[in-house]
Amino acid sequence: MRNKWIRRSLQKDWRYWHPENLPLRHQLIVLFLMVGILPAILLGIMVNWTSNQIIERQVTANTMQLISKVNQTLDTYMENMQSITYLISFDRNVDQFLAGQSLNKNDASDTSTYQIRQFLQGFTTVYSEIAGILIVNTKGDYISNELYARYNQSLTKEDWYQQAIKQKGIFTIIGHPSGRNITSHANYGEDEVVTVVRSINDPTTGEVKGVILIDLKLRVIAQAAKDVTLGKTGYLMVTDPTGHVIYAPSDTFMQSIPAKLTASLRQSENVFTEEIQGQQLQFIYRTSSYTGWKTVGVFQFSESVAEARTIRFYIVIFLFCVCFTGLTASYGLANSISRPIYRLSSLMQKAESGDMTSRYISNRRDEVGMLGRSFNRMMNEIRNLISLNQQKEQQKREAELRSLQAHIRPHFLYNTLDTIHWMAQKKGADDVSSMVDALSKLFRIGLSRGSDMITLAEEEQHIVSYLQIQKTRYRDRLQYDIQIDDAIRNVYVMKLLLQPIVENAIYHGIKARRGPGNIYIAAQQQDDKLVYTISDDGAGFSEERLIQIQHQLAEPLDWIGQQGPEPTGSYGLLNIQARIHLAYGTSYGVSIHPRPEGGTTIKVTQPLLWNMPSAWHHKRDPNE
To answer: CA 619, CA 501: separation in Å to the nearest integer?
Structure first.
């Protein structure tokens, strides 16, 4: 029960809030807001989204350009290191050393060893980024200007030496050295240098002659990356191809690279976002085609959208101004349109309550003003119609009074005819008595107590009375036969429907022929229709006259209006046709057919009415 009540309440609320049920002012406000403010909001959303996309693309493009510059710098350093390895391998003394000629490393008077060291010292002097250069031959002997072995173990067993041999003379970047048996006089830590190696192979046999190792100072890489700033707190970092850090600033918001980020750096996507240590960070990187290193731009996601927030702020201010202006303008405009309409509606409500003095007063020239002036004209017309209706009602009451007074005359006529009837019977004048009796019945049925509808039996009695009077006049020249089915005697028909047709048959048919004439009258049911058939063997119609009458019967009202002061022979037929069309429609009516043996047959159709239609009920005089 409660759910049913809730459902009805919701349906009622929905009907109330349906647009068609809202006041016109609210509908106009909603319309103006949808037309004015909604597009502005959509435009703001599109501008915000577009600006975010543009800023994001610009940030990515600028960061990529900066990363490309850093990669070019690092590539230049590495290309210089590669060139140095080639220059070292081309030196004659170095070539002798690599060929296996034993040198006394502790003998300061050894000229070749001294020359090689001076040669290497020249590179470190010219290239300050070099922390040390080491040359190792296949016997494990080495020469260096800054580097030396920690322990008395052969350097040919070191991992970096084995990696260089595997590359077969290709310049190889090791990265940060780890656990090697080498140190320097400057005591650089393993995380302070980057090691590169290249094996020296015999150009003829391809055999390995030795390996050149160069330690590059990390500060060189740091300088190239530090010069680039990304926003307020963003920075650049360099990793090797596996994702291990080569360089990262010490004072960063991300001190270590998680394994998840390492996996992301191995993907082909150059821009991605990760949540690390509770911070939403954005990463943009590019891989060097020469070194294989990845230079990664790292900055907080909030900084990347800072410019977008500024634009969004101005968009919100713009939308606020548009909405405020739109609401004010919509409210004012809606009121200016709905107020006169509401006023006009109030005047109409007063008119509904009966106040016909209400008038719309305004100088507006728009549609509302036109509607108001039309309302004033309508009220004037209504007042005129009411006045006219009152006059007609007064006239109607006067006519009813006159009709009531005139009812005395039919009563007097009936009583007089009855007196003549009884006097004729008393004197033995049966023919006079019969004729007076028929005339009395003819008048009574013709008046039919004020009703326009009578039964078929009453219509039959009316025709019989009329024919009796005519037969008294024409005697043996007129014979008639009436056949009506007893089952349909109680159906309702329009009175005086057959008498004009019978009259035409007598005066234009029987009377115009020589000798006696016959009239046959029948009424029968055909489906849902009542069909009268009136046939005579009189003179009939000529072909031209028949065509003329049939043409007139198609539009009876038009031809009745054209009749002159003296009715023609077709007036009665046209009158019957017009009455049937007005009462039942054009699918019913009168049709004329010539008889092959001479004379005319007229058929009249109407609906089969077992009850009197309510529209035909009239107040009858009980005294008639």
So the answer is: 29
